[in-house]
Amino acid sequence: MISGRARSLKSLSLGALLVGGLSLTGLGVSLAQDPAIPVHPAHIHEGTCDDLNPAPLQPLSMVSVLQNDSDEEGANTPKGVLTAGRVLLSSTEGVEMSMEDILAGAHSINIHLSEAEIDTYIACGEIGGVTVEGDLYIGLRGIEDSGYSGVARLSEDGDSTNVDIFLTEPLEDNAATPAA
Length: 180
Prior knowledge:
Number of domains: 1
Strand content: 35-45%
Mean pLDDT: 81
Radius of gyration: 17 Å
Low-confidence stretches: 1-32, 174-180
Helix content: 10-25%
Number of helices: 2
Number of strands: 10
């Protein structure tokens, strides 16, 4: 069984890893702009994932593939174990709700298939849990066997909240084998 201290250290390490990944966006890394790469709208909604108010309460940045911002050949070619699921990212600063207001009622983060299919939900997570040093991590689970899952981090920022979403795509049955 993991002690409370070890669990806290594990959570802080995960948080540092996720925040470190976000800091790359200022170093030649960007969200995908290629129309062939999926882009998923995300919002904060009132209610739980099982009883979600369909009207978004707060918009969040689009969830998409994190890629190198480079024209170099192979800059965005996957390497390593090619059966690993792709991680999608969204980072939204200044959501116009304080963490206190978000936690005062039932709220969820909902991720949609696309703007064209906004009524199709692919992942959702209820906002709740223990806030540690101003950060709250929540799990995101797939909706209707979508295969998506992930983690969202909400961070206090005065009267607003910053939201980072890390979403993994479903693994395909015919995924490629590791590179030689």
